[in-house]
Amino acid sequence: MIANRLLKVLVLALVTVTLLAACARTPYLPRATVHSSMTTSVDNYQYLIGPNDTLTIFVWRNPELSGSFIVRPDGKISTSLVEDVEVSGKTPTQLARDIEQILGKFIRDPVVTVSVTNFVGPYSEQVRVIGEAVSPQAIAYREYMTLLDLMIAVGGLTEYAAGNNAKLVRSVYGGQRTYRIKLDDLIREGNIAANVDILPGDIIIIPEAWF
């Protein structure tokens, strides 16, 4: 019996050493970078261009330089004169001024207008709903979006949701703050006082109820 116990101890020690050695060889994954939104209030929101947006760029008196462009996953576009123009994270007006500077090397006094025809936006500006929503997903932010608008977009709560224990995580000045929100009161009770403003980059976490 003592021999059996000793054997079990030796096997356990060997397994432990093997696991520790494997962990030592396993590289750590890089932590996700939190990109704070430029928007700190519903009153200072400006749309930022992001990957997969469709841009219409018009260069006055230069139709051959104008056209429709899809923003690549790396946040850039290529025009007929210049490749790899960085566009992600800029407003359409900022991009227009940047393109004017670039084209100024080739044509005289360019006048550029940029408009967005398919809106996705950068990941840092998208609003995410996870947990016990009917259709949890990331959604492009819209000006003056509220919590009620967001919950309609994701189809509301599942029957297992603990809506009044839900949390809103918001990036603030390089950090994060967590707020409690009352989704049951808002959706199931119709209490509009529980409705709050949503900002770009907000994350809504809806836990499951414990029965």
What are the key terms here?
Outer membrane lipoprotein wza fold like, 10 strands, 23% helix, wza like fold, single chain, 211 residues, 4 helices, five-stranded mixed β-sheet
- The best one-word shape is elongated
Through-space gap between termini: 46 Å
Tell me about the largest β-sheet.
5 strands, mixed
Helix content estimate: 10-25%
Low-confidence stretches: none
- The H-level CATH homologous superfamily of the largest domain, spelled out, is Outer membrane lipoprotein wza domain like
Q: What is the string of helix and strand elements?
A: HEEEEHEEEHEEHE
For the record, the CATH architecture of the largest domain stands as: Roll
Helix/strand/pairing category? alpha+beta
CATH class of the largest domain: Alpha Beta
**Given the structure, what is the number of helices?**
4
Average pLDDT for all residues: 87
CATH topology of the largest domain: Outer membrane lipoprotein wza fold like
The count of β-strands is: 10
